[in-house]
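> forwarded from #structure-qc
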């Protein structure tokens, strides 16, 4: 960074407070149309960006332009689901990340079923790439399909867009969508209504139309105990029918059944 750049208002008011000493930026384009700017920053203790860094960034720009220019597909939607959030990554032919947006790492980790903790941090660098590689292999095998993954954190849909450069190099853009399916939405509604964890479980099954016997089998309790829990939910919500429970939970979650 030159002395003139350090004296400028942008450095003094924006970069300096953030501890930025070195930066590299490029315009992302698709077919000559500017789509946005990609900016990379390093602090004062890091090495300045090199010509090799600039060359690497230039190689990635084409793939970013291709990925960002592809319209986000309308999710394959059943009446019971909708997209909560999405993340995007561009991978080379070996499955290595060329680019990932801010949402990708967390969503992929949730799809895998784990949340990063200090005790497992050293394992994450190996497990996540293996998980992504297995996803990519499954998606390539069925390129027209939407690949679904269920974990304790919800349902995730992965979609692939094949990218290629004028030089013939290939890459893949993967879009991950976290879906809010009916049980998750209903549970969110039950929580919003202030039901206890046990009442939430019962209310969700009631809203899905399960009988007292089915609730008893699911919870591993007697029919009398399940009936008691059902009665508690009715009293707590001040309704008398399962359809009314479903409607209240959906409304509390901000959706309509």
């Amino acid at each position: 960074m030159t002395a003139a750049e350090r004296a400028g208002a942008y450095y003094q008011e924006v970069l300096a407070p953030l501890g930025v000493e070195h930066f590299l930026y490029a315009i992302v384009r698709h077919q000559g149309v500017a789509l946005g700017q990609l900016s990379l920053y390093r602090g004062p203790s890091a090495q300045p960006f090199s010509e090799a860094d600039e060359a690497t960034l230039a190689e990635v720009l084409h793939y970013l332009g291709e990925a960002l220019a592809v319209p986000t597909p309308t999710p394959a939607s059943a009446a019971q689901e909708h997209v909560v959030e999405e993340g995007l990554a561009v991978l080379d032919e070996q499955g290595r990340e060329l680019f990932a947006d801010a949402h990708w790492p967390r969503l992929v980790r949730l799809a895998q079923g784990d949340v990063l903790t200090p005790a497992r941090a050293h394992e994450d660098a190996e497990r996540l790439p293996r998980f992504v590689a297995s996803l990519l292999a499954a998606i390539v095998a069925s390129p027209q399909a939407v690949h679904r993954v269920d974990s304790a954190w919800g349902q995730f849909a992965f979609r692939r867009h094949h990218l290629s450069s004028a030089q013939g190099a290939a890459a893949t853009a993967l879009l991950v969508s976290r879906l809010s399916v009916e049980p998750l939405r209903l549970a969110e509604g039950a929580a919003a209504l202030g039901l206890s964890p046990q009442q939430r479980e019962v209310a969700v099954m009631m809203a899905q139309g399960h009988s007292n016997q089915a609730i008893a089998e699911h919870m591993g309790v007697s029919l009398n105990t399940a009936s008691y829990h059902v009665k508690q939910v009715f009293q707590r919500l001040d309704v008398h029918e399962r359809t009314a429970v479903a409607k209240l939970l959906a409304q509390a979650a901000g959706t309509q059944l």
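QC bot note: The chain is about 45% helix and 25% strand. Strands lie at 22-30, 33-42, 81-92, 97-100, 147-151, 154-164, 170-181.
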